[in-house]
Structure formats: C-alpha cells, structure tokens
Amino acid sequence: QPFNPGNFLVHAVSNIICSIIFGDRFDYEDKKFLTLIELLDENNKLQNSVQTQLYNFFPTIMDYLPGPHQKMIKNAEKVNQFTLEIIAEHQETLDPTCPRDFIDAFLNKMEQEKGNGHSEFTVETLSRTTLDLFLAGTGTTSTTLRHGFLILQKYPEIV
Q1: What residue ranges of the chain have pLDDT lower than 50?
Q2: Cβ count within 10 A of residue 66
Q3: How far apart are the C-alpha atoms of 139 and 134, rounded to whole Å?
C-alpha cells in the first residue's frame, strides 16, 4: 500500500534535534510535541502568502494590517514560549560540571561571560538560536530524507 512517510520523518528528525538541543526526546503522542509540529507546519504553509512575503520587506507597516502573517507571528510566539519554558527549567536544574545538552552548554557560557557587557550570550540569544536550530533542522532534514526516499524508489538498483 502506498503511504506518505512525511509525518514520520518530521517527527523522527524533530525528536533527534530535541534530544540534542533540549536533552530529551518526546513521545510521538505527546500533546506539546504534536502542537509544536503543527505550529511549524502551519507556519511553513503561511510563508507562501503574499502578505507574509510583504511582511519580510515592510514589517513595521504590516504589523498593523490583517492577514495570514499575523497568524504566523502568533505561532512563532507560541513556539518561542515553549522554548523559553524549557530554558527556564534548565536554568533551575543546571549542573555546570555536567552539561546535558546545547542549552546547558550555552547557559555555562552565559555564566562565563557574565561580566562582559558586550556578550551575545543572553537568554534571548539562546532562545533564538535554539529556535533556529529546531526550525531549520526539522524542515530541511525531513525534506531531504523524503526526497532521498523518492530517489531510491525511482532507482531501486542503487540500493
């Protein structure tokens, strides 16, 4: 029977990235995890709208106009809030001698740079970097794997 492995690939790739960034993976039925994936998927679809593309060029003006870009902004804020909650949990349970993941390593570097007024190691930078790694890694890697499967199906003699 034909099937679309897209969702399986997105979930698997997201979980691998979560284990690197957050130090933990999610159950595939976890509500938070599924909501996060849905928000990312919805934002990918919304990025094709004209309003969203205009928002990239004229963010100040577009902030006041209705359209799908407003939904994309709200979705991004929800994903950012999810990330900030995990960062806060990591700050409470941090053991500087035993970093568990990317967030712990970043928090350790933040502590080292505490006296430096020009340091870019802040919670905001951590949140944005974590978000970038998660968003960029999930979409591109799962799409690459999907295309790889298609190529292998078309040319089974390669295997």
Answers
A1: none
A2: 9
A3: 9
